Amino acid sequence: MRTQPVEFLEFVEFDLRQARGFYDSWLPRGAEQFRDKFRETISWIEWNPELFQRKYKHYRRAIIRRTYFGIFYVIEPEVTVVVAVLDLRREPKVIRRMLKARSERE
């Protein structure tokens, strides 16, 4: 187990806006609740990035509790990089394509 800081790609801000909008559209204080669950999951990733399993090549996935979303990230030597926060109800092929496209744009 090793603790290390977490950084975010620019794409993640768009992902988070979509997720907050989704939960706010049908749940009172939905965006706040999602934000709290997201922060909790990021804390777990910071505490031990290897806690969550690999899902696709070098990408790991942490499911955000009580939501439809997951955090996809990679572990680098000095930092953990969050690549995407995606709705896990999507087709796995679509998720893999999105991750691949984002890694090519880095």
Main attributes of the structure:
alpha+beta; YaeB-like fold
Quick structural overview:
The chain has three helices and five strands; from the N terminus they run E-H-H-E-E-E-E-H. With about 110 residues, the chain is an alpha+beta fold.
Could you explain how this protein is built, in words?
With 106 residues, the protein is an alpha+beta fold. It has one domain (6-105): RelE-like (YaeB-like fold, 2-Layer Sandwich), CATH 3.30.2310.20. Helices cover 45% and strands 25% of the residues. Helix 1 packs across helix 2. The chain is globular, with a radius of gyration of 13 Å. The protein starts with 5 loop residues before the first strand and ends with a helix. The mean pLDDT is 94.
Broad shape: globular
Given the helix and strand composition, which structural class is it?
alpha+beta
Number of strands: 5
Q: Helix tally?
A: 3
Binned, the helix content reads 40-55%
Distance between the termini: 27 Å
CATH topology: YaeB-like fold
Described by strand count, sense and barrel closure, the largest sheet is: 5 strands, mixed
Write the SSE topology.
Blueprint: E1 6-8, H1 11-26, H2 30-47, E2 54-56, E3 59-63, E4 69-75, E5 80-87, H3 92-105
Parallel strand pairs: 1-5
Antiparallel strand pairs: 2-3, 3-4, 4-5
Helix pairs in contact: 1-2
